[in-house]
Amino acid sequence: MRTKLIVGNWKMNGNLAANATLLRDLLAEPTATGCDVGVCVPVPYLAQVHALLAGTAIELGAQDLSAHAVGAYTGEVSAAMLKDFGVRYCLVGHSERRQYHGESDVLVADKAKAALAAGITPIVCVGETLAERQAGLTQDVVKRQLAAVIHANGHCISEIVVAYEPVWAIGTGQVASPEQAQAVHALLRLQLQAASPHAERMKILYGGSMNAANAAALLAQVDIDGGLVGGAALKAPDFLSIIAAAQQG
Ligand code: PEP
Q1: How many separate domains does the chain show?
Q2: Section 210-234 average pLDDT
Q3: How does DSSP classify residue 136?
Q4: Fewest CB within 10 A of the end CB: N or C in the chain?
Q5: pLDDT tens-digit readout, 112-128
């Protein structure tokens, strides 16, 4: 039995006052049981959120990191720097990074490696575009993306979290059906089984327009172990509803 994991991706949203209000509202609910929770926040707010989450059940996450450990990489943030602020999770290979910043499968794999080396759990995002799905390429794309991370990380692969995020579902309101998502999750589980003796305990999250209304059906699927939540993570009642669905699922 895998404990569910719900992770909010705040993307480039928030400010000091709004973050404090959102976290106050999330923390006003009783501590989540039977479900792990995290929030991936913009870098300038890591210190603020680290302080506000101290001693709570919500874990701190980041949205990206450098593949390099240290040095002349202007604008980049290393895994060790994130670790200094208590970061537990870090997204790698989010489709917005792949799309807008040209991140390759190899770079994503190296970022996962950098996170693991620092004791941060990388949440490795994979997913196909609409054109790729329509061309029947979904399986090829997600397998290729995950294979690069498996190849670069050897036995450490057991320590990653995978997030299946169909690009056509992210921020569009067009969620994958539970059956569509489960089919890809089952495929990813098989791929993990071939790479790790611990695949049964590894978490595969679904992301893409997950909300309070559709979360329960998605989270009831056998290989969907939680959610990576964008827009709905910015509204406390919606995020809390998704957490509640995960506690029951
Ligand atoms: C995301 O950013 O990872 C995401 C899933 O966004 P949304 O929930 O808004 O589709």
Answers
A1: 1
A2: 98
A3: T
A4: N
A5: 999 999 999 999 999 99
